[in-house]
Amino acid sequence: MSDKPGASVPDSQHTPEFKLQVVLEYLRNPRRKRHIIKGKGITEELLAEWYREFLDRAEQIFGGQQAPPTKPTVKPEPSDIPPMPESAVSAATPAKAEAAPAASTWGIKLIRGRRESYHSPSSSRECPAWAGGFSQKEWEDEPGLAVWDDASKKFEHLRPNELLELWHKLSQDERWRTEGIRLTRRFEYEIQNGERKKRWHRHGKRRAQPTVDTGEPKREVEEVEEELFRLNPQASAELFELLKQHEALLEPMAEEEQKRIDKAFHEVFDLALRSAWQYDVEEVDLSKRPLPWVKQADAQTLVCDVPPNRGTVRMSKSDWFWEACIEQPDHFKNERTNFLQLEKALEWAEQELQSIQASAEAEDKQTELESGTTKSQIDLTPYRIDPAALEPARITYRAVIYLERLPEQFKTMEMSFGKLMRYDEKYPSLLKILNELKLDESAVKFEQPGGINFGWYFLFSTATYYEETVARIQVQRLWDASAIQQLYKEGKVPRARYGIEEVETGFCTWLGGLMDPEHPWEEPETRAEHIANWALEEAVVHALDVVRFREDRKLSPKLVSDEQLVHVLHERRVRSKHIPIDARAESEHWLASHPDVE
Fold first, then answer.
1. What is the model's pTM?
2. Nearest CA to 416 among 511, 293, 308, 300?
3. CA distances (Å), 380 to each of 4, 372, 515, 545, in order?
4. Are the beta carbons of 84 and 151 closer than 8 angstroms?
5. Which of 93, 217, 499, 588 is most buried as measured by Cβ atoms within 10 A of its Cβ?
6. Alpha carbons 334 and 209: distance in angstroms, whole number
7. Residue 539 · residue 523 · CB < 8 Å
8. How many CA atoms lie within 13 A of 579 on its CB side?
9. In sequence order, what are the residues at sequence separation of 6 or more whose Cβ sits closer than 8 angstroms to the Cβ of residue 302?
């Protein structure tokens, strides 16, 4: 089977599900036929064959009844159908001629609608009394062409698409001027045991229910074009002139008919499908399933909750297929939407949920093994730094404001359990943040620690202070003068806080702020805790202890490799003011001989 779009594949290699999907796609939008053929890698002949097969089985799908048995029908010969009486046909005259005499025994009527119809000049204007009720309806308001003859008591009606086809034939071949016009229709006959049984006849109003496949040889089907009516040359001339005068109506009539057929077919088919899936939901026995399923109150959805995950099966919005969905916290939905059977959709959802559970258990075991075997073996005693050694000779202070800013622009994508994920986020530049906060550019400087793709901003006063009290007064003034509180009310800044920072140690004392109750600030550490943690971190960097560094920061190996962490530790060593100079020199030499790690 070729993978190239448009490559033709033999019919025998296509599954029934694939055939049905192709036909349903064609039914939804017949105008995309060429696109469907090319995209599915089939031929126009295959699509036509599957479409005919689909229509042949329509009554079986919709619960149609078997047509009553009929006698074998024999193809009528042209001589079996008498032509219209020669005496009853006048010479061809313009379509606007006077009404035909009441004594006319034949008629030709072009019907656009109940209030829009046109007769041939010489035909009767009245529907014959012998015509049945359905013929009366066709004569009154069924779009197309009505033709009748009292002598043979024949009444036929050509649908708009048949009429348009007839007009094209008459326009291309003028033999009708001497031979007359034969009005024909295609019929299908099924040949069984030497007998011919009609499977389809006019308007498709009666169709024998297809036989269920029992393994018997396929029955032969013969398509025959049979004559319905024959007009002599004079009547043919009137018909031609009538169609010629109203040629502009023929194609719109055919298009309107096709739209009506498509709409009716879709409505009936949708009703049948909805009935089928409602029956499936009612009949399914959920108690025997390997996982717990529950029917929702609307009886249209089945849900399987296996915390923290969930599986859902429902009929798609188009009512064509069953769709199944798997949801995991902080994951995108895993969806499949092309199940023809409810049982298959349930099986797929159960397999996915069980696979997720098995993977989670395996990952937990692996984490346990790693946590038991990856403890650092390095003794930090030789590398430890006394926290008191980190105390500066003199402390200076500066004002600090930390805020989170929501993106100005972003797109959203729905994840599992209705959670929305933002992406393509665009955050304000540092200059724009400064303008928003209405602060003096010379009084503060900005840092964006996460980079331009994150909304975290640090503001520091350009001035530093020896007195803690003075620093507190200055940061309070800075906070009060800013527009942070207004931006918080507008929902642009969900969190912000202000305080003073010890320049030499990096310890911050937070004095106040604003926050989203659902995302509160973490509990701040004490100054003693800050200095102790700093000293321990310096020892880990000095020892190049990758395992402990990773553990302290909870960095997954999937996120950062050991090679990357070694590079980071050497860089931290070089920048440290508390690690011995020989260790810093060693790291400088290592960095010079090792390129950057991505």
1. 0.51
2. 308
3. 62, 19, 39, 9
4. yes
5. 499
6. 41
7. no
8. 26
9. 281, 284, 286, 293, 294, 295, 296, 312, 313, 314, 346
Q: What share of the chain is helix, strand, coil (3-state, %, to 5)?
A: 45, 20, 35
Class of residue 298 by CB neighbours under 10 A (exposed 0-12, middle 13-18, buried 19+): exposed
Distance from C-alpha of 494 to C-alpha of 491, rounded to nearest angstrom: 6
Find the DSSP H helices in 93-159: 133-141
**Paired tokens of 117:** 């119809």
pLDDT of 249-290, one tens digit each? 999 999 988 888 887 777 767 776 677 777 778 888 899 999
Q: What is the torsional sign of CA 521, 522, 528, 533?
A: negative
Buried b (16+ CB within 10 A) or exposed e, 256-288: ebeeeeeeeeeeebeeebeeebeeebeebeeee
SS3 category, 409:
strand
Per-residue confidence band for 366, with pLDDT thresholds at 50, 70 and 90: confident
The Cα–Cα gap between 250 and 538 comes to 90
User: H/E/C letters for each residue in 415-457?
Assistant: CHHHCEEEEEEECCCHHHHHHHHCCCCCCEEEECCCCCCCCEE
Number of C-alpha atoms within 13 angstroms, CB side, residue 244?
14
CA distance 365 to 380: 29
Q: Identify which of 172, 202, 199 has the alpha carbon closest to the alpha carbon of residue 185.
A: 202
CA atoms of 89 and 239, how far apart (whole Å): 11
pLDDT score of 259? 87
Taking the C-alpha atoms of residue 425 and residue 422, their distance in angstroms, rounded to an integer, is 7
Q: Is 193 left (phi over 0), alpha (psi -120 to 50) or beta?
A: left
Give the DSSP H or E segment for 470: helix 468-481
Tokens of 542: 């000095």
